[in-house]
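Input/output pair, single chain:
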Amino acid sequence: MSAIAFGFRSCFALCAVFFAACVYLIVERYRLRKNIRRISEAAETVASGQLAPIPKTSSGELARLSLSLNLLSERFQYDLAEMKRLEEIRKEFVANVSHELRTPISTIRAFAETLLEGALQDEERGLEFVKEISLSSERMEKLVEDILQISALESGKMPPRFETASLMKIASEVVASLIPFAQQKQVVLRIEPFRDLPEVHADREQLRRVFINLIENAIKYTPERGCVRVFALSDEGSVRVTIEDNGIGISPEDLPRIFERFYRADKARSREMGGTGLGLSIVKRIVELHGGSVGVESALGKGSKFFFKIPALIS
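Output:
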C-alpha cells in the first residue's frame, strides 16, 4: 500500500506541477499579448502624430523594445517642438519683413501719387518729393540686401572663406572709410593701435561687415561732439575688439534683445537714421560662424560698449 500511495502522491505532484506550469504559461501568454497590444497601440498613436508614452514592461526583449520606442518617441517630440519653433520663427520673420517693407513702399507710393496729381508743376515741392522717394527706395534696397545676407548666413549658403587676417588692418580700413560720415555727424572717430595682437583665421569681407555695422551704429547714436573709440586686446586665446561710444546708451530692458532680428531699442529713431533692424543680427551670426561671441555693455545717457571675440591664430 505504501508503494501505491507513494506512486499516487508522486503522480499527483507531477500533475500539480504540470497544471501550475500550464497556468503560468497561460498567464504569461496573456501578459505578453497584453503588453504587445499596449505597446502596439501606443506606437500607432505616436505614428499618427500624437504624443504618448510607450508602456514599460519587465519582460527582457519587450523591455528593450519599450525603451527603444520611448527613446524614439522622445526624439519625435523634440523634433516636433523644434519644427513648431522654426515655423514660428519663419512666420515672425515674414511678418517683420512685410512690416519693414510697408513703410518705404507706402512713402514711395504716396509721394508718387502726389507728383502725378500736380506737384510736378511746383518745382520746389516736386524736388523735395523726388528726394523722399529716392531715400525710401535706398532704405528698401538696404533692407532687401540685409534680408538676403542674414538668410544666406543662417542657411549656410555664405560660409566664411577663412584666411590669415590682421584685425588691425581691417579695422583701420573701415575707420578710414567712415571718417567722412563721422565728420558729417560731428563725431570724433579714432582707432587705437592693436598692440602685440595675434592674427586671426577669418573671412576678411565678413569681418569688414562686422566692423562697419558696429562703428556705423556707434556714430549714428552718438550726439555732436561725441566720441567713438575702437580698440582691441588679447583675451585667453581670443582677440576681443571693442567699439565704445559716449552716446545715448541702451536701457536695461532692451539689452537682452538687442541682437535679435528686427529688434530696435528706439524704433522711430532707428528708421529715421536708415536702420533696418538686422545689422546687429548679422554681426552676431558672422562672429558665431567664426567660433566667437558678441556682447554689449551699456547704460542710458552714458554710452555703449559693443564687443566681439574670435579665436586667435596660434602659430
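DSSP finds seven helices and seven strands in the chain. Helices lie at 2-47, 60-116, 123-155, 167-184, 204-220, 267-272, 279-289.
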